[in-house]
Amino acid sequence: MSKGSKPTIRDVATAANVSLTTVSYVLSGRHGGTTRISQPTQDRVLAAVKELGYVPNQAARGMRRGKTDVVAVAIGNLEWPWDRALATAAARILPTHGYQPVILLGDDWRKFMMSGGADGVIIGYFPEATAEDATVTELARRGVAQVVISGTMEPAGFDVLAPEQDAGLKECMEFLTASHRRIACIRRAEPSGRRKSRFAAYAAGLEAAGIGLDESLVRTSQHRPDLAYQSALELLQLPDRPTAIFATDDMEALQAVRAAFRLGLRVPEDIQIVGVGNSTEGQQYDPALTTVGPEPIFDRVVGMLLDRLSGATPVEGIRVPAAWKLHRRGTTLG
């Protein structure tokens, strides 16, 4: 083995003075049945593995065995509290069940999964209006375990955890409009006619309270922390600044809290702020974030995939609803 290079299975075989086949059988656990490898030989191989620091290539092993012991978690961005909480739950739970988690950002999961990179995948970031997806359909046809977080997709050889936002968003707007007339909004993206849009719930809540939609109180962050922060600074420095901010994601809401502190404003005494998502980060923030969302679901999502990997759920898939509500915490009064 050359200096600085990663040890290979051939290096292990040389160090243990055995064949490549013997090393493969010892590491794969297939040395029972008709193949007999003495305990001293097994010990010698394992000692060489430890001494060299050899790490088996999981992908190559998976191709040989039809199983990788890897689970992919597809999220949008680790800067987003919801996605970070899902990744954290997967990293904590999956290894205890013998699976190595791989966190994939954006659309990277598609190529990875189609190449057989993992036994299963949790897909946590589909746009709200997505009703079907060609990659998910093909993976289901191949029998790959999948759990999709989506309010619009229906199970079809995969399982769906379905956020049900409407009641919680309505509750939130009723709460805000009971005490405020100037309620700003930091939305993730421009409206696109999507049903169940969080911005649509904001507009509908204003209308129900007899408050006109004031476009000067609306900003778009493109779901970027820097733009969310700048948007909040702009809103909070208006001559007639809002008394409350509704952010369509916890990330935007937390950036609004930061902006308020930067300007010397007190939260919630001077400005009240509400997010959407009920993320772990929002719960642990100081002050804790008032937010619309489900009860913590991240452990539940990982458990759903483990059930599917073990064959405990129907082949056709299941849909598990997750009702959302307003969680009142430290960034609002009352």
Give me the CATH architecture of the largest domain, please: 3-Layer(aba) Sandwich
CATH H-tier superfamily of the largest domain: Response regulator
Low-confidence stretches: 30-34
Straight-line N-to-C gap: 67 Å
CATH class bucket of the largest domain? Alpha Beta
Tally of distinct domains: 3
How would you sum up the global shape?
Answer: elongated
Task: Could you tell me the CATH topology label of the largest domain.
Answer: Rossmann fold
Would you tell me the overall average pLDDT? Answer: 88
Number of strands: 12
Tell me the radius of gyration.
25 Å
Q: Helix- and strand-based class?
A: alpha/beta
Q: Strand portion, in percent?
A: 15-25%
Largest sheet: 6 strands, parallel
So how many helices?
A: 13
Helix content: 25-40%
